[in-house]
Amino acid sequence: MPARLSVALAGPFLLVSILTAWLLLNFMPPVNNLGGYEGFDYLGATMLVFFIVMLLVGVNLSYYYLLDASGLLVVLAWWFNKTPAPFIEVKLLKNLVFVRAVTVGLIINVVLLGGLFLLPLLLANSYQLSSLKVGLIFFGASIFSSLASLFVGRLLPNYGNLTLIYVGATLMALSLLLLYFFTGVAIIGLATGLLFISYSTIQVALNSLVPLILGNKVGLGLGVYNLANFIGMALGPAISSKILDATHSYGLAFLSSLILVELIFPLLFRLTIPKNQ
User: Fold this and answer.
1) Taking the complete model, does pTM exceed 0.90, yes or no?
2) Which domains does the chain have, with CATH numbers?
């Protein structure tokens, strides 16, 4: 049921997003004197929206939709290489340093939003906590996350982006280990705080790292980076709800998130930023 419910809730929001994009494109005033502007890739944008929808539906309802999503991804790759002004620049996707950084952002959003889906259910169903007490736990974690963002911003010049991403990934893995191996409201509260702090640490470092990687293509690249983040936010609850439906085990759901976090370390291995940036 959680998987079907997440799809039912996601549908109206997707429709509102598409309608909002259409309104912006049709009612914003025209912009003149854009040198080199070759038009908007409506077909590419539409296919990308359908790819994301089929990916989410495939994860939640039927794996057959994942086959359709894979086929559409092949068509998208062909189209972005063929059209002179693609919705996503192919050159960005050939920048492996950028792709690795974007993948790290995708992973942490999958893990965080998956945790935000699972933890209230765990606290309410297994520990019979009221909505107020669950909210207070998340409120405290959010406060520590905000403070961590300020603290990480001060540490960036001295320790560098990659070091702080490593630290954040280690803390995120530790929080998931606590959730997998231990029980108790106190442990879950501690793990929730660590999860929020680790996410803020990685996010702040990535937000500073991506512009350094992109150089003069920062505008185009940040769009792709944010798109990957939003896809991760949508996939997190979808994947977690599917695992919970299939296994009825919160532990296995947290273990799956831990495996994802472990992928961050090879993605960062020997990651180099261009010297001229």
Assistant:
1) no
2) 1-87 (no CATH), 89-270 (1.20.1250.20)
